Structures are given as C-alpha cells and as structure tokens.
Amino acid sequence: MKRLLYSVFILLVMTQTVGADDKHVAKELLESKIEAAIAVLQKNDLDLQEKNKQIIEIVTPLFNFPLMAKLSLGRKYWPGLVKEERQRFTELFTKRLKASYLDKLALYTDEKVVFKTPVQEKRKIKIQTELISKNNTISMLYKFHESTNSWLIYDIEIQGVSIISTYRSQFDQVLSKGTIDELLIKLEQPEQPEQPEQPEK
After folding, report:
1. Whole-angstrom distance, CA of residue 85 vs CA of residue 73
2. Strand 161-162 versus strand 150-158 pairing type
C-alpha cells in the first residue's frame, strides 16, 4: 500500500513539473520571438518591405496556420470543402493573417512589452501580453496548443476579441448567402484598413 501511494505521489509531482516546464517553454518561446520582431521594427537601416520579410520569418514558426484556417470556417463549412478548396483557402487565409499581424506590430516602435504569467488548461496554454507605448496600451492574449514537439498559436485575442471568432463571423456572412468561390475572391483582395473612430461632436 505504501509503495502504491508513493508511486501515485511521484506521478503527481512529475505531472506538475511537466506542466510548469510547458508554460515556461511556451512563454520563453513567445518572448524571444516578439522581442526579435520588435528589434527588427526598430532598425533604421531597413525599409518596410525588408522589415516585414524578416518579421514574418521570425514569427511564422509560432503559428499553426492550417489549424487557424480550419477553425475560422468551423464545423459548419470546413467539412464541405474539397481538398483543393481547403488548400486554397488556407493559403489565402494565412496570407491575410500574416498581413494583419504585421499591421498590429507596426503600430509600435517605442513600446514596452509586458508578459504576464502563463495559464495552462490541460494541453492548452494562454499567455497575456501588453504592448505599452507612450499613448496607448494593447492587450493581446496568445492561445497555444500542444503540437508535435512544440507549442503553437491557434488564436489571439486582441483587446478581448478573438481574431478567429471575428473571421468566422465575417466568413459566415459570405457563405450563408454565397459560395466558397466568392469567399476566395474576397480573400484575394487586400484587407481594408480599419478606419479610426471619429471624435464625438
């Protein structure tokens, strides 16, 4: 009986240790990538095109773009796509996501990045960050899932709003009345930048 209890105790300790290591690994990975991307943004000897290229090379390994594409359509639409449609949608959606992420990062060149304590829920980890500039603070919650030998981002909440949920809502508006071909055509077009809010008179 004592041996059984000892074995259970060791197993629990090992499980907790692995969980702590997982959170540490994910946080260290995110910190290193974001800090490297910010460092590129602050280089004065690079033009915007070269900066974007280097940043994409830095952050791309963090993301599970195929999964994000699948989640953005959800169970309602993804199963109905044929292989070629899935491949094309994933390609266009990935391009859209990368451009959107670059736009968010490009807003900050003098910011301080604060990384909060990671929270692990089973095989998923959430890491809250804040980009703090002189005039603004943006909260970004990175959601990781366990992949083969790594942790990958499957969603980001910006100011509490999930980008996957936002895109899923947009795509549903198109597909509820139209076709996947119409959605693909829309994705081929550049995403319109958000218009700044006008002050109330």
Report:
1. 12
2. antiparallel
Q: List domains and CATH numbers for the chain.
A: 2-188 (3.10.450.710)
Q: What is the pTM of this model?
A: 0.80
Q: What is the pLDDT of residues 80-139, one digit of tens each?
A: 999 999 999 999 999 999 998 888 777 665 668 899 999 998 889 999 999 887 777 889
Distance, CA of 47 to CA of 77 (rounded, Å):
40
Q: Summarize pLDDT for 104-119 with one digit per residue, the tens.
A: 777 665 668 899 999 9
Instruction: Quote the tokens at residue 180.
Output: 């996947």
Rounded CA-CA distance 161/149 in Å is 29
Cα–Cα distance measured from residue 31 to residue 5, given in angstroms and rounded to the nearest whole number: 39
Q: What is the CA radius of gyration of the chain?
A: 20
Segment (H or E) for 155 = strand 150-158
**172, two tokens:** 């549903």
Residue with tokens 């703090």: 132
